[in-house]
What we know:
By secondary structure, this protein is an alpha/beta fold. The chain contains 7 helices and 7 strands, in the order βαβαβαβαβαβααβ. A 7-stranded parallel beta sheet has the order 3-2-1-4-5-6-7, with helices on both faces.
Amino acid sequence: xxxxxxxxxxxxxxxxxxxxxxxxxxxxxxxxxxxxxxxxxxxxxxxxxxxxxxxxxxxxxxxxxxxxxxxxxxxxxxxxxxxxxxxxxxxxxxxxxxxxxxxxxxxxxxxxxxxxxxxxxxxxxxxxxxxxxxxxxxxxxxxxxxxxxxxxxxxxxxxxxxxxxxxxxxxxxxxxxxxxxxxxxxxxxxxxxxxxxxxxxxxxxxxxxxxxxxxxxxxxxxxxxxxxxxxxxxxxxxxxxxxxx
Length: 245
């Protein structure tokens, strides 16, 4: 790992081994933040992402934790505190999106989804706020442009993301004025393996902007929320106009 230097502000990004979390971590590293790179199972991908960041001369802390466990979250932020970086940013990106049906899904599946997608961001924010304290900071939650839609194929996920938007507003009031809390709600950004290219293009064609978004679209929203210090309690939707259809 690169040498740890107190002069770097620290940004902790959960779920940063791959997909949106990885892209956000790289963008923050490009803005001069040391990165607390959280992962759970994806160790190989996490180390690859860390190596890419370190190659640019930016320090990385690899933070492995099961965010469904409160004790694991507390241990993660103990590592952050021990690193002696000034924590300034937390991005809650880790999430699970599992197809299911309310009429038949198991209760433990529901609980596991909400534990990671909603409970963990609250616990991470609580620990981060303790370390940011009077020096202030910024927390960004990654929700979803479908949070207010009735996506019956993803019931626990949809409920968790709707709850995360409400949690964002509650945290913004509770942690003000020192800490600002906002959210971004991406739409069609990164195609998953479950969605064919044909279906992806069909979905994009329904949007007013007629195209999927990019990782840069999300990164720009994150950086805006970091730099505009008069915005808190808001959710920025990055979805090509999906809210309009």
